[in-house]
Amino acid sequence: MSTDKPVFPKISGDELRFGIVAARYNNALVEALVKRVLETFKQHNVSALHVELKRVPGSAELPYMANMLASTGQFDCIVALGVIIAGDTIHDEVIAQSTAQALTAVGFSTEVPVINGILTTQTAEQAEERVNGKTDRGREFALAALEMARHKVDMIERLDELIGPDGDWSAD
Ligand code: DLZ
Questions:
Q1: Could you tell me which residues are beta bridge partners of residue 116?
Q2: Is 85 helix (H, G, I), strand (E, B) or coil?
Q3: Which protein residue has the closest C-alpha to ligand 1 atom 19?
Q4: Which of 113, 118, 125, 152 is the least buried, fewest Cβ under 10 Å from its Cβ?
Q5: From the CA of 25, how far away is ligand 1's center (Å)?
Q6: Is the CB of 26 under 6 A from ligand 1?
Q7: Buried residues in 156-171 as b, exposed as e (16+ CB within 10 A)
């Protein structure tokens, strides 16, 4: 695991809107992630009215709901939260890889950034350390969401200016 901590820019979230999708598998750990994300949003002035939380059975269902929320056009960023813990089979690897790819695809097709907040660990203890221990992944996911939401708003505005009201591309 990388112990590097990224430095996030200071961003006010007062006009930003977020969708959160949380898996119920490994529920206690995922709920702790949800709590940290919501706390961090609050610390950055995100209005509770601008956050919608949906729950799905497991991490494999996260991309579907992320795609549906992003498709509404009502959000500046979607945060997908789950905890995948290795078992006796390679099921965890299949879910982790396919969800990561699908979440990335949602961002490209909807133009709404999606934060991959799925922890993938060998043991429950490793997940616990990253959720409730020294490594605060929930906060990291929220800070990444704030930064990407800001990028999304800025880039969509820029594209709108370039394309113009009649849909004509006006870049030199
Ligand atoms: C089936 C399954 C297994 C074995 N492990 C996990 C896990 O560690 N974390 C998680 O979020 N979901 C798990 N699931 C459930 C799948 O994500 C999914 O809900 C089911 O395969 C139904 O599509």
A1: 80
A2: strand
A3: 58
A4: 125
A5: 6
A6: yes
A7: eeeeeeeeeeeeeeee
Q: How far is the CA of 18 from the centre of ligand 1 (A)?
A: 24
Q: Among this protein's residues, is 50 annotated catalytic?
A: no
- What's the pTM value of the predicted model, to 2 decimals? 0.94
Cα(90)–Cα(94) distance, integer angstroms:
6
d(CA 18, CA 33): 15
Q: Could you tell me where the DSSP H helices lie in the chain?
A: 27-43, 62-71, 91-110, 124-131, 137-163
